[in-house]
Amino acid sequence: TRGPTLMCLPHLAHLQTTFVGTRDRRTPIPQLLKKLHPTPAVCGLPLDAAVSKIHELEDFDRGFYAGPFGWFNATGGDFAVAIRSALIHNDNIHVYGGCGIVRQSDAESEYAETNLKMSTYTNLFHFSHAQATTHALPSLPNINAVHAFATIEELSRCGVQHFFLAPGSRSSPLAVAIVRSLRARYTVCHDERGAAFLALGYVRSRRAPAAVLTSSGTATANLFPAVVEAAQEALPMVVLTADRPPELRDSGANQAIDQVKMFGGYVRWFKDVPCPTDKVSVRNVLSDADYAYACAVGVMGGDPGPVHLNLMFREKLAPTEEEWSRSCIEGLQSWSKTSAPFTQFSRVAVDLESLDLSNVQLKSDLAALVHVLSKSHRGVIIAGDLRTPDDRHAVSRLAQLLRWPILPDATSGIRFGGLKSDAPVVSYVDQMLLANGFRRRVEEYDFALQFGARLVSKRLLALVSESDRTRFDSGVLARVLVHWDGVRHDQDFSYSHRFRASASSFVTVLENILRQEEVTVSESALFSLHEMSEGNDRFVRELLLEDGVVTEPIAARMVCEELPWYCDLFVSNSMPIRDINMFGPAALDRNLTILCNRGASGIDGILSTVIGFSIASRRRICLLTGDMSFLHDLNALHLLSSSEQPRAASAIPPLLIILINNRGGGIFQFLPIASHPDTLSPAFTSPHDADFPRIAAAFGLACESVPERAPPAALREALRSAMRCERHAVVEVRTHREENVGLHRRLGAAIAVEVERAMEEMFPHEE
Q1: Pairwise CA distance, residues 457 & 442, whole Å
Q2: Residue 610 and residue 197: Cα distance in Å, rounded?
Q3: Distance, CA of 498 to CA of 515 (rounded, Å)
Q4: Contact, 453 vs 483, CB < 8 A?
Q5: Best CA proximity match to 506, nearest among 464, 453, 461, 449
Q6: Which of 211, 303, 449, 464 has the fewest beta carbons closer than 10 A?
Q7: In this structure, are strands 270-273 and 307-312 parallel, antiparallel, or unpaired?
Q8: What is this structure's pTM?
Q9: What is the rounded CA–CA span in Å between residue 443 and residue 475?
Q10: Which of 696, 616, 686 is nearest to 649 (CA)?
Q11: pLDDT (tens digit, 9 = 90+) per residue, 340-387?
Q12: Peptide bond preceding 4 in cis form (omega within 30 of 0)
């Protein structure tokens, strides 16, 4: 069994225990399912008596209520119980759900629980929202409330799935509209910077827009770091900032700063929205919201990203009664009776896979690329940040077709195996590039096909962005980048071809052309390099355990090994992501995708990003972070301790934080500034004596500390204990900054020697 674990859904949470077993082949699948269904939770005990009583009392068809849903084949199966279902007969829909009745059940609370469960279905039907909208607009207390309601309602209709709001007076109309909305889900965060990173994490998980709301003044400036990250990563985020009316600008009024275009070129669109007035139709408000959303998701051209609506409000800010003319909402009857946006923006797909290959320029570009590819003898595939499983499988499939090795980065989703394919992955390429012989051999590639622009490994980045143009005159046929956005991504000006497409669509097109044109591609002379990874994995594991004490590399590897299948891994920037890339295991028996804020690679807002991601995904998340990053975002711990968040949508599945504490900025020990000890500390390492167990306790979090030089078994047990814990928890791993530098250098030197030895065995007759 696995569990019980907390499975959080948009409206409620379940305790989930997974049972895994082997079926007796003499027992048919239907017979097995009959034994398992219906479960006591949806029927009762004893089973036969409960089923008989239900049939006696009910004279209607429940559809598939309590029925098995799933799949099976010759090797296995996976089934779940349908605890809610719908039965459609002609024009009638019957929806079924319920709650468990026990001897101590209270009728009122059970009825409330049933309604909550049924909201999974009832929220699918728009009539209640439309009827509420029809009655809501004319009945709103003042014109500020009208404009705020229209803004939030329209953004929700467009597809903004969650609002993260920081309390403030000037933003009151918008906050009230969110809280009273029938559509909007929201989370309240007392810290504006944290709220913005919560929205960022939510968007990163869902790939769908979320909004952040703040009051006026310096509150708005706190959004800047998350806006930059969203812009760099092309994540659709709607920024709503309240502002003072124009007559209070440049007047010395309290909390009145210049908020006009304050995020500069980091937003895809900005509008300074005038103060609400009943002299102007509310259609203007709806249109602004629609266009903002369209720009955020990239419908209007360009890449997705953040947009900024700066909304001015005069008093009255609270929802108190004040006369306003209903003429401003005339012409909105049709809008009120539907759940569709006022203006729906559309864009014809421009993904490479959907384009007509009769397009002359595209066909010419691809034909030229395939011609060069057919001449390659030393091709490699570089796997950078691949966003989806389809992308990862496509890259793996192409590598097997071409018989080219994959050089994977930590964020590729391929670095740690789990694809269940025979993909030729050189998992430890970041380490192996430390060996001169390996590096020289890989540098001899003649065709580098890179999927995903962002790379964690500096050594891999140096390999693919070699700026010495003379190499193009001495054997390099092509250096190709395939990335889904339109950003340049060419810091060393070295790519010969750049395609804007997802990896999966590009591979599909390339496969079709190779097949249709009957193009033959030679197996890469570098193909066999992937065979070194398995041996290198064993060597690294043994090397890490030689000293018999917990180190930062051991912690990075062990987190990957111990992570449950139902848990995602988010890794902070600086040393944690580098250690994961260097020392993470080569092959796991499950997919492991590393989540990371690599847009601007900052260490701020990491914990808030993870919480936002968790709210969106409803999955447990493990965060591997350093002490400085953790200190940056301590405010976010308040969200983990709060029991008064509104709406079940804000429930946060148990979060596990693995905190590497080397008492300062350890990464600076690796940089050239380390040779200047008079300035290294405190100006760069920022040493501290933070008591993290006490900090965790102050927020009601469980915390276990693994002391310096503890045996690895102590860390493994701490991780397993924390993962069994059904509450937010911190595992502090204490290490030593100076010792960590020496350890990394010793490990690097030993790995280089081992790789050189393996190279000599693999290529014995070459100098």
Answers
A1: 15
A2: 9
A3: 22
A4: yes
A5: 449
A6: 303
A7: parallel
A8: 0.82
A9: 11
A10: 616
A11: 899 888 765 445 544 445 555 667 788 888 988 999 999 999 999 998
A12: yes
